[in-house]
Amino acid sequence: MTIAATSTFSEEDHQLSAANQLGTPLSVYIKPGSKRDLLITILTEVITGIILLSSLLNDISRIYHIPLLWKVLYSLFFTCLFGYLIMRQEQERRVIICEHGLLEIIRMIGRKSIKVVLWQDVVEVSAAGTLLTYRADGRKKFASFMLDDKYQYRGELIASIAEHKQQFGHAGILRELTFPKPEDGGKYRCPCCGFRTLNERGEYEICVVCYWQDDGQRDVDANINRSLSPNHMSLALARENYHKFGAIHKNALASVRPPLPEEL
Fold first, then answer.
1. Of the candidates 122, 117, 120, the residue with the CA atom closest to the CA atom of residue 104
2. pTM of the predicted model, to two decimals?
3. Where are the domains of the chain?
4. Tens digits of per-residue pLDDT, 215-246?
């Protein structure tokens, strides 16, 4: 069951959705687990401090207890202060699913951090469902955020994101918008196929010849399968696959083309 009734959305939720042209808010997911764990930690520290403070006050006649007493009071004050600030931050941490994308809202000290992700910019949700990767900064680079198990109804949150991502994929929009292709005749050679198709190195550009996503991997670590790499394979395996059937994945063949003369 998702928290999806219209009455559960704040006025701010509707304003943020409208301001970012995301359409109608559909559901909202919060992190009650984070608040509960944080509250337990803060209360434990406060109770420990009070017990220590009480023992010191019972024997205040000892002069060497006074500096320690001030330290305990200082610690209690800042534990309560930072606990209050962090609890406020966690209370407003949420993900809002909208018609055209999602919002991740986090209250920082003195401000709010708001991430806006359009459905056509979603690249993938990791196999474990903990990391959402998307195109950011005008689709010039990749960014990500965690979908940890503290989110309420996390399984439905991940399923909802995957469903919207799949809808754009079937419409033939996702691939085109998610992977902007570099101009013909790039400055740098692709580390996988060797053709000059990249404008920059390590900027996650997609090679139009082999479909390798340039994550900066080079010959020195070509055999390493980076756990967070968008390619899901080592550079060495990608090269082997390219020589076998012309792309790093067989399902990428429809997206690749032969190299142009200026790319040789």
1. 117
2. 0.46
3. 6-30+93-174, 33-91, 188-255
4. 899 999 999 988 777 888 899 999 999 998 88
